[in-house]
Amino acid sequence: MINNILGGLFGKLLDKSEGILDTIITSDEERLQAKKELKKIVVDAEASAQEQVTRRWEADAKAGWLPANIRPLTLAFLTIILVIISFCDGNLGSFKMNPMYGPIYTNLMMVVYGAYFAGRSIEKIKK
């Protein structure tokens, strides 16, 4: 999930910078070399961002009970609150889910669950 976000962000940046390089640099060799270096910078930046996230999560896990459990507690809290709100919203008598909650559930699952479980997998692999 995080890779998709960062990849999309850096991918757009890379595409725009390659377009600028094409207009500024006239030699094919120079253009190819500059594009290779830009791609390397993007890959290094993505790897560094992932490493920083992993380091923060590892530091949280070592800091004490609350920092170690804040992600699962947040996951549980958001899930419970969203379920309560979406089930109670206008359902005093008959149940009908408001369509506006569909995208909210989708985004919640992608971001929170994706970050939680992907982060836990990275932590386990690192050990």
Quick recap:
With 127 residues, the chain is mostly helical. It has four helices and no strands.
Topology readout:
Layout: H1 2-24, H2 28-63, H3 65-88, H4 101-126
Overview of the structural elements:
The chain folds into 2 domains: 1-63; 64-127. 86% of the residues lie in helices and 0% in strands. It is built from 4 helices and no strands. The longest helix has 36 residues, at 28-63.
Task: Give, in order, the helices and strands.
Answer: HHHH
Total domain modules: 2
Separation, N- and C-terminal Cα atoms: 21 Å
Structural class: mainly alpha
Q: What's the pLDDT, averaged over the residues?
A: 75
Supply database-style keywords.
127 residues, mainly alpha, 86% helix, flat
